[in-house]
Amino acid sequence: MRFNQWLTQRIEKTKEAGLYRELRTLSTAPQPQRIVNGKEQVVFSSNNYLGLAHNPILIEKALKTLQEFGLGSSGSRLTTGNTEWHEKLEQRIARFKKTEAALLFSSGYLANIGVLSTLPEKGDVLLSDQLNHASIIDGCKLSKAETVIYQHADMNRLEQKLKETQTYTRRFIVTDGVFSMDGTIVPLDQIMKLAKRYDAYVIVDDAHATGVLGKDGRGTSEFFGVSPDVVIGTLSKAVGVEGGFVTGSKMLIDFLLNHARTFIFQTAIPPLSCAAAYAALDTIENDQDKRERLLRNIKIIKNRLEAMGFIVYGQHTPIIPVIMGEAETSVRFSEKLQEKGIYAPAIRPPTVPNGESRIRLTVTAAHHDSQVEHLLTSFKDIGRELEIIS
Ligand SMILES: *Cc1c(COP(=O)(O)O)cnc(C)c1O
Q1: If DSSP codes are grouped into helix, strand and coil, which group holds residue 172?
Q2: What span, in angstroms and rounded, lies between the C-alpha atoms of 182 and 248?
């Protein structure tokens, strides 16, 4: 009883701070049109950027592998969990990312934790962007190296921090490729130049960029034509499946395989997921239509919202944050969208700064023109009603 009383008090505090979270239940396949909490909604908040999570070719591939290899992998990679599909997928990822080698993790989260808790050692320093993803923040906390935060994508501040940290053994700059709340693309070309000038290493988390950025969707490295020391990614967003990965040199992969605890002590992802992700990478490389369709949807939504008078953050990425200002306004906006059959969440402080509460839209290649039009008309109507635009 005392245990639950204490928890009740803690939850009350969470509620008072406006940070209480609840699950919503989705009852259908991850297409844009879904049943959310029993109600039909067009979802503008999914990471399934290329619509591959419900792709029939991938599903067929997964089913075939399911029949052959069963459900779970039944062991960690270094014991009994390593199938030919895991190795084939790693080679496929390396080929896709144009790197020497790749290592699979169970998730992008665990890939970040694995790299950041292993690679930088005591006496080293991690220079981390202020808006980096939670898994980078947690990885930095687990590292024996010190962490220094620099202001979001601010190259002058980063240079200043590089000057201030010359006494450390090694310096690692760690950054998201595409930032998940602001939709900004990291100026990776400039970061690479600074890293070279100040003898630092660069770690990029390409979770939102893989399958999206660059001529062939290979990510931020391709977009800027650079090769960072370590690129981390996920198979759970544009790739449409699950799992995380690290790409880089053969030495890097060998090092992580031997030292990264989130690799060593975790059951390998199921072979069926590897087979599906393999097929997804084939699709991403060979079928440019999906990415073109995605980029088109991004462009239409971003441009039209700006033309209506909304403040839209970020560059041309699938993450489109529409600034509402106060927290209540964004919550009301989100509720009114739901009444019109659109699901797009309100993001409030402390996730974003005060006064920058927003509707965080994400768009996919699978959204039809009619769904995009309905979104835009709804934004215009609700924006006028709540006097956000004139
Ligand atoms: C989603 C995300 C992750 C986590 O990837 P999972 O495979 O879902 O664990 C890591 N970093 C960033 C920037 C992300 O957006």
Answers
A1: strand
A2: 27
Over its C-alpha atoms, the chain yields an Rg (Å, rounded) of 21
Q: Catalytic annotation on 61?
A: no
Active site residue 180: yes
Contact 257, 119 (CB under 8 A): no
- On the CB side of 267, CA atoms within 13 Å amount to 8
Which residue among 135, 137, 185, 220 has the greatest number of ligand 1 atoms within 8 angstroms of its CB, and so is best to mutate?
Answer: 135
Query: In this predicted structure, what is the pLDDT of residue 19?
Result: 83
Domain ranges of the chain: 19-48+288-385, 56-286
Pair of tokens at residue 323 = 């600034």
Nearest CA to ligand 1 atom 7: 108
**What are 120-155's pLDDT values in tens digits?**
999 999 999 999 999 999 999 999 999 999 999 999
What sign results for the dihedral spanned by CA atoms 131, 358, 52, 80? positive
Q: Retrieve residue 295's tokens.
A: 């980029």
Which residue, judged by its Cα, is nearest atom 12 of ligand 1?
207
Give the class (CATH, top level) of 56-286: alpha beta
- The reply to whether 250 belongs to the active site is no
Tell which residue, 229, 218, 215, 223, has the closest CA to residue 173. 229
What are phi and psi for residue 102, nearest 5 degrees? -145, 155
Encode pLDDT of 372-387 as tens digits.
999 999 999 999 999 9
The mean per-residue pLDDT over the stretch 211-218 comes to 96
CB atoms within 10 A of CB 271: 25
Domain 19-48+288-385 CATH assignment equals 3.30.420.150: no
Which residue bears the tokens 């893989």?
A: 210
- Set 61, 86, 97, 237: catalytic member: 237
- Taking the C-alpha atoms of residue 138 and residue 192, their distance in angstroms, rounded to an integer, is 24
Counting from 1 in the atom list of ligand 1, the atom nearest the Cα of 133 is: 13
Question: pLDDT tens-digit profile of 57-74?
Answer: 999 999 999 999 999 999
Residue 385 half-sphere exposure toward CB, CA atoms < 13 A: 12
Q: Which tokens belong to 18?
A: 């406006």
Q: What is the DSSP letter of 347?
A: E
- Ligand 1, CB cutoff 6 Å, lining residues: 107-109, 112, 133, 135, 176, 180, 205, 207-208, 234, 236, 244
